[in-house]
Amino acid sequence: MSVSVHPERLRQEISRRGWSPVDLARAARLSPATVSAALGGRPIAASSLSLIAKALAETPTVDVIDRLLGTEPVNPGLG
Question: What is the dihedral of CA 7, 9, 27, 30, to 10 degrees?
């Protein structure tokens, strides 16, 4: 079974970890071509999506990147 992911959301999740698409491919044990397909909005195997999700879930986001991307609330006490 093939699935399509939301390319921009995947890019954001990659960025939130300070990764490149190649870093995600390595962490998910997938080929860079598979990650590229997902980023291009092309269908990938459901099993590949599971590996991507697992790799993202196992790697925490970088707080400062979240703040720069606007995905984490700014702490008003920090200035």
Answer: -20
Summarised one tens digit per residue, pLDDT across range 1-58 is 999 999 999 999 999 999 999 999 999 999 999 999 999 999 999 999 999 999 999 9
pTM (2 d.p.): 0.84
Separation between Cα atoms, residue 17 and residue 19, nearest integer Å:
5
> What residue segments make up the domains of the chain, in order of their start?
2-71
Q: Which fold has domain 2-71?
A: 434 Repressor (Amino-terminal Domain) (1.10.260)
**Which residues contact residue 51 at a Cβ distance below 8 angstroms, ignoring those fewer than 6 apart?**
28, 29, 30
Residues in the chain: 79
Dihedral-angle region of residue 61 (phi above 0 means left; psi in -120 to 50 means alpha; beta otherwise): beta
